[in-house]
Amino acid sequence: MEKVLLSIIAASVLCVVSSHVQHQYHFVYEVKNMTEAQSYCRDKYTDLATIDDMEDVKTLIDMMDLNKMVLDEDGQATVWIGLYDDVNSWRWSDRHAEVEFKNWKKGQPDNYMSVEHCTMMLTTGKWNDERCDRTLRAVCSSVRGSNVTFILINSTMSWTEAQSYCRTYYTDLATVRNEAENQEVKNLTDGEWVWIGLFRDSWKWSDGSNSSFRYWASGEPNNNGGKKACVAMNFNRSGGWGDWTCDQNKPFICYKEIVPKHKMRVSVKMNSALDLNNPEVMEEVLKQLKQRMKEKGVNEDVKLSWMKQPDGKVFHKEKKKTAKKDEL
């Protein structure tokens, strides 16, 4: 196919779709528990609300209709959003380890104050969940084929620092696969609490979003009672968030994904007699337009497509304008 030169003359309409997705929020004032609310949002919209920044918080505060709101047992206007604590996501730092063995101390893990996402071994050999920024000694593992050696590190560090150290100098933080290995690690601890490689995810969004924005109210999250794993927005506390037990019934906020679209009228001038409405020609023109946009620094996430006009065609040849003759 002959090369199409883009300089711009036959009229057409181009649809520009940005991959930057916008959220359109919807309040549902019927009360449901977190699981029911999630199912409802996924069925009717996209998912429970993900909140990305303070602009979203302000938008939701403005949208809330207090006259429709069902207050909670404390007389507060609280609604479910999509954030939850994934308390069952325990896994080993060594990505290849698929180990079911656990040796928790009685009553553990308890996720005290909703901040305990890492695991330490106590002097008894039992395990306890702990906040990851605490500094302890750690046990690394060195794996050579089927042989595993455990190494106690002398210096104290956070769990994340210990993970990095073990991966740099050995294989990883210790994976404890059975009672025998648990006893072996216990014998190394020298009467101290130590990090092992078990950890879990903390707060997650229902839709899998990686938004790191948080807007906790003062004193939250607190996990009072040890079973608070779901998050509600409290309009009596300026929209601040708190953790709640997931079986409580509350109104909730869903969102629907809106992908912005823009129409642009463009013209193309060709160096040949090719039919611009030929699908192959249109595809070639699109490729050149995308390249031009890339050269101008336009985000590569933008998608381009042609829009057909009422007669089914994309391009129409523009009529040449003729200058009027001066009247005598």
What does this structure look like?
The protein is 18% helix and 31% strand. It has helices spanning 34-44, 54-63, 159-169, 179-188, 279-295; strands spanning 10-17, 22-32, 47-48, 78-85, 91-92, 116-121, 127-131, 137-144, 147-152, 172-173, 194-199, 203-205, 228-234, 240-245, 250-258, 261-268, 303-307. The strands form four sheets. Strands 5, 6, 7, 8, 9, 10 and 11 form a seven-stranded mixed sheet that branches. A hairpin with a 2-residue loop joins strand 8 (137-144) and strand 9 (147-152). Mean pLDDT is 85; it is low at 1-19.
Overview features:
single chain, 328 residues, alpha+beta, 7-stranded mixed sheet, 4-stranded antiparallel sheet, 5 helices, 31% strand, flat, disordered N terminus, CTDL_fold, signal, C-type lectin domain-containing protein, C-type_lectin-like, disulfide bond
